[in-house]
Amino acid sequence: PETNQVALFSIPRDFFVTIKNGGFENKINSVYQYGINSLGDSNQAADLVAEVVGDITALDIDYYAVLNFDGFEKIIDSLGGINIMNDKDIYDARYPGPNYSYETFKLSKGFHQLDGATALKYVRERHNDPGGDFGRAKRQQQVLQATKNKIFSASTMLNVVALNNLFDALGETIQTNITPDEIGSFIELAKKIDTQNINNFVLDAWDKDSLLKVTHVLYGNINAFVLIPRVGNYSEIQDV
Questions:
Q1: How far is CA 126 from the centre of its chain?
Q2: Cβ-based neighbour number of residue 125 at 10 Å
Q3: For the chain, what is the radius of gyration of the CA atoms?
Q4: Contacts of 177 (CB under 8 A, 6+ apart)
Q5: Strands (DSSP E) along the chain, which ranges?
Q6: What's the CA gap between 224 and 203, in Å, rounded?
Q7: Is there a smaller number of Cβ atoms within 10 Å at the N or the C end of the chain?
Q8: What are the CA-CA distances from residue 240 to residues 56, 97, 201 (Å)?
Q9: Please, are residues 85 and 109 in contact by the beta-carbon 8 Å criterion?
Q10: What Cα–Cα distance (Å) separates residue 76 from each residue in 15, 185, 204, 237?
Q11: Do 194 and 5 touch, CB atoms closer than 8 A?
Q12: Phi first, then psi: what are they for 196, rounded to 5°?
């Protein structure tokens, strides 16, 4: 709010975490479902994820938004699609299809306008990315920025029908602790964001400067692949 600066920080799904007082150790992508199962409430589950992310980053996580795949598609479509620049050819013959099937997803290098269904494939695909899950996180950040740009473009902000379509999609598909009274303040703040200087950071284990390292933990008879801080604690992550 003071500098109008914004950052996107991605935590990989294989990051190994501990829930305080919960006796739970697992990958971070299982924390939300653990919260649903143990607390029986999706809002408390989201609060639990916020608590874990707060421990990792030493940041106060005041707000959250939970979005499912259907909601993601609806929001992109309500905006009339988004524009992205794909930096490499994508060909994935094993993209997850309905009923545990596979389908082929391909997208050529270059400029594209993506509808909701294609944008979802673009942010989920990882088999054909040399960066794996880390490369996927970068594409997810790219789509977040493209969506933000489209929402706050003149064609959307000055179009009553487009705004109504967006808010209808948001209301049906997002779980959040942002109250209706706060939405206006968020919109005014978002208009002021310095979009030319967004800091992007993907927490990874990709090269010698990465802050994470690979290890394995035993679950029953399974030796599971996980990521942990290279220094054994969250200090380097919190410095970032």
A1: 14
A2: 21
A3: 19
A4: 43, 46, 47, 63, 64
A5: 7-10, 16-19, 24-27, 65-67, 82-86, 90-96, 102-107, 110-114, 174-176, 199-202, 212-219, 222-229
A6: 19
A7: N
A8: 11, 37, 9
A9: no
A10: 28, 22, 28, 32
A11: yes
A12: -85, -10
As a residue count, the chain comes to 240
Q: DSSP string spanning 190-207?
A: HHH--GGG-EEEE---SS
**pTM of this prediction exceeds 0.85:** no
Residues contacting 139, CB < 8 A, separation 6+? 122, 123, 125, 129
**pLDDT tens for residues 133-188?**
778 888 998 998 898 888 777 566 656 677 677 777 777 788 889 888 888 888 78
Q: How many CA atoms lie within 13 A of 170 on its CB side?
A: 14
Q: What is the pLDDT of residues 88-114, one digit of tens each?
A: 999 988 888 888 889 999 999 999 999
**Helix-then-strand count for the chain, H and E:** 9, 12
